[in-house]
Specification:
17 helices, globular
Amino acid sequence: MRVTQILVDFIRSESFGGIFLAISTVMALIIANSPLQHYYHHFFEISFGFQFDTYFIGMSIHHWVNDVLMSFFFLLVGLEIKREMLFGELNSFSKSAFPAIAALGGMIIPGVIYYALNIGTPSSHGFGIPMATDIAFALGVMLMLGKRIPIALKVFLVTLAVVDDLGAIVVIALFYGGTINTIWLFASAIVLIALILCNSIGIKHLSVYLGLGLLLWLFVHSSGIHATISAVLLAFCIPVRAKQDLQSFKKKLGGWVLHGKKNQDQNDSILLDTYSLEFIHEIQQNAKDTQNPLLRLEHFLQPWSAYFIMPFFAFANAGVSIASDFNFNIDHIFLGIFLGLVVGKPIGIFVFTFLCEKLGIAKRPDGISWLYIIGAGMLAGIGFTMSLFVSELAFDSQVAKELAKVTILCASLASCIIGVIFLLISGKVQK
């Protein structure tokens, strides 16, 4: 029984999401380089949708994963960013400036390194690949280090990764869309205005927002902008305030307790009567109305994202068949991504934060040394999920996509190993 409880606690822990992501990646690589590789690639090319006479509405399973499932992931990311901006580490300039500037440095320097190495080549458009940080992997590694590193460093890295995600969303919206269709873009704007109006007039039903969000996804997808951006826009329109406040619920709860004491002896039957069922339903509905809609949706999406969407995305995208004639010399994709993530991330984060403190823009959090900042920068080089996602958008050539994916995996693994060793050594030096 104790072993079962330990296993359940481990699966529920934040670090398990990163571990499950890693397992899915390894499985994809093994299958893609085994006799089953044909079935693996064929499965994700299968079209899935609805057939109406000669008209088909749908897409390949690979596109369902990257365009539809990842929209839910981006919805979760948007909700987390909004929560941090309102209540968390991004709700004031003093709190957000230092990690935000760190994230900016961790995006600009890797992007510049990649672009400088590939300028003038067809691969230069992949500059967004090394700019991203995978929050699940990076946080998972930090949590596994436990008490060897200060809590303040974990908060710094999480905040940095949240800002990094916001930056990645902006980069995708600006540089990785298709040809813009103004009619669909105008239709998207109308739906977005409707969502904003729903929020401003106090509509709290999530079903209304999700219904309009589906329309927004369809219109944005048709407009030429990547559809996942619609999920982020939807997230920023989800209301924060609940239908009723906690004090109102407590007053009603007191009334229900008194009512229950008066009627506790009136009905001892196992089967509840209609009145009792309605009474229970009223309590459940009021409890639901007291919950924050944003947090309710975030808590619902969190396990789906950690245990299904991200691992399935990794399984669908990390399966690269590495043959003996695999070409590592397409322009400077390998060097650009590898150096961008492994070298550019820690340099960018350290240089920008160092200048930030010396210029008096923001103060370094208490208990975090410059060695810890460099170590966190190394872990930020774990690009993985976002980097894989951008690589799918950046290149038209399948060969270039596969090279980018292999490089992302190599660079993320190297960043993880180097970062862990550096942080462990730094911890001993601090002591």
